[in-house]
Amino acid sequence: MDIRELQARARRNEPLAKHTTARIGGPADLLIEVQSVEELVAVAQRADEMGLPYLVLGGGANVLVSDAGVRGLVILNRAKEVKFEVRGVKARVEANAGVMLATLARDCIERGLAGFEWAINVPGTVGGAVVGNAGAHGMDIAANLNLARVMRRGCAPEYWTPRQLQFGYRTSALKRYAPADRPLVLSATFDLKLDYRPNLERRASEFIAKRRATQPAGASIGSMFKNPPGDYAGRLIEACGLKGKRIGGAMISEKHANFFVNVSGDASASDVKALIDLAHTEVLKRFGVDLELEIELLGEWPAEAPDGRLRAGGMT
Hints:
Blueprint: H1 3-9, E1 11-15, E2 27-34, H2 37-50, E3 54-57, E4 63-65, E5 70-77, E6 82-87, E7 90-96, H3 101-110, E8 113-114, H4 126-132, E9 135-136, E10 139-140, E11 145-151, E12 158-160, H5 162-165, E13 184-194, H6 197-214, E14 220-223, H7 233-239, E15 246-247, E16 250-252, E17 259-262, H8 269-287, E18 296-298
Parallel strand pairs: 2-5, 3-5, 4-18
Antiparallel strand pairs: 1-2, 6-7, 7-13, 8-13, 9-10, 11-12, 11-13, 14-17, 15-16, 16-17
């Protein structure tokens, strides 16, 4: 890809609120949408050659983009190819990083492949799920991942094993990089097993019902804080009397206190960040628990306040 093609395809000052599940976020200087892994690699390599900072955005879940937006290039990953290989009672599934988790879960269930039922209505893409070891209902990405195809900045694509990825609770070796320096996840390969399709459909339906009963509908970022050892972030925030707390257009959900929702439809990132700081401060004060963000803060943010509020962009 030459510079003229890059320039021709780029959208300037694209509002990132259009591309996040919370419908919040300022503009990207430049945004390019890619439809394949080959395009993703070509755009990223060209940006590297030009010295243009970039980050990749998938489904827009689990991120809060600042009102000031993102400098440089945002690559919107729409690479969605999935390959299935079934041998006997076992199967190997290779999914591009831009595949939506919920779509992958449905495709696996339709083929009678067990292992992704938990993701049937989990937002986000395969790439983001690998970075953050996404999970739900006691299961996660690490349980079935065989290999991830990754490209470090300025290098050729390579394969990383689960050992190299160093999965932990909602984290991996990749998440320890700042978003603007992070190696790109291009695709991931998973090992699954054949199962009776009605059993898979029943389990998926149970997960859907549980999620609907316990989590808010509408525009939200996802689980805000990681659960601390032996406890739940939502319980701690609720115990501080913050359920239903509203700042501007953002609110701590009355249904689940670890979900912050864009209740007005026009909430700002600053509204959400103020609620994050409030919840963090109150839980620390009352329980001595230093909650850690599960989401990531993207873009330009003010420096850390002197009262010890969460550092913007520090939880990556």
